[in-house]
Amino acid sequence: MGVKLDVVPYKWNDHMCYIGKVRYKELESIVDIRSDISMNRKIDERRVDKIKQYILNDIPATFFPPTILNSKAEISYKDQNVLEVKRGCFTVIDGQHRIKAIISLMNESGSEQRDLLNRMELPIFIVEGLEDYQHRDLFYMINETPKNVESNVSERFAPKLENLLGLKFISNNKMFLNSIEWNDKQSREKIVYLHMTDCIRELNLIIYPLIKDWFDCERDLIYQEAEYYGIVEGYWLCYFELIDTLGQEEQGFFRKKITLRALIENLSIRIRERQEELQAKAEDKEILIDQIKQVITNSLNEMINKMPIRYTGMENVRKDVYKSLRNYLYFNSLLQAYTEQIINNSIIQQILEKIFEAFYDERKLLTLSTTGHTTDGQIFEEYITKIISNKEEFLEYNVSAVKEIAATKQTIMDEILSLRRKEL
Q: Do 259 and 226 contact (CB within 8 A), yes or no?
């Protein structure tokens, strides 16, 4: 007696077709899985192994799209939606790797796993009586015509920690749905989701080592821990709150991938500054997590500000550029106290742009002193106060001459002052 399948029939061109399902345990007896490269691609054993692992991760939850089969077997359709395979086998048009994986597991698994596998069914689509050339044509159409999913789209379906945390944040904070760009790789109007997950990955590298001992789970499952997720959520809630206070052009700047990574660079610095203090709090989980959240909030507040002097440095996606941009944001934070005095003064802005460029465009992070302040920061503030206090004198400078200055942070002020002497 042959294998009986529950199916729904319909006609496609001159061929009878059947949509139905087959039990895993019956696949080997009705499907010819032998490799025939004239009719299908060569079986990739690594791909088979990945599918096997996918099935074993959670057998009852396994999902596959319909496998497409060509029937040259002797079959008989009954009116009660039953298709009987009397003799022969189906050949595979699409889905040979999943069938090979299932058959392999059925032969290798222990009794407990086999019991679960025996209850599973695979959806199938059977086309009756295709000639070999039709089989090949259909295989080509199915496998070559579809557009590949681009990486920025496929990444959000990947079971990676940063993606699981990112999706959980959006799910819990749906008010930001319209602020996310899901499909395109660049956007000034929205934050690209793939750039968000890049930041979350780097954020994990910073915070996970500090608190991992408090969580009794594997690293990839820590997104399920409410306290750990709360740190990541706190980061993005603070980010969105701060950029909402900025103008449209400034918001676009803070949505860029390089700017997002510069924010992470600064957080990494601030965490390292307080490493010993945080480690001292490690015996109390709540205090430790609160301290980490506070460092994150302070770091973002330090970096995300109005920009009276625009960024004119490089924008390549490289680590040294992230560092240069982080330096710019740091100096921009020092400038906030003087914003009102420079915002409507084009000459002062030109001078400050030159000072900014000399300080931040070094492609390396500023060296920190033991007090948490930087020598560079102190020098920078001295320059700013000198310009502000002598604003009237600087207003007489030649803008074109200012633009031509090329100097380092050690010589920039002398170069600026020399313009006045030359004019005299």
A: no
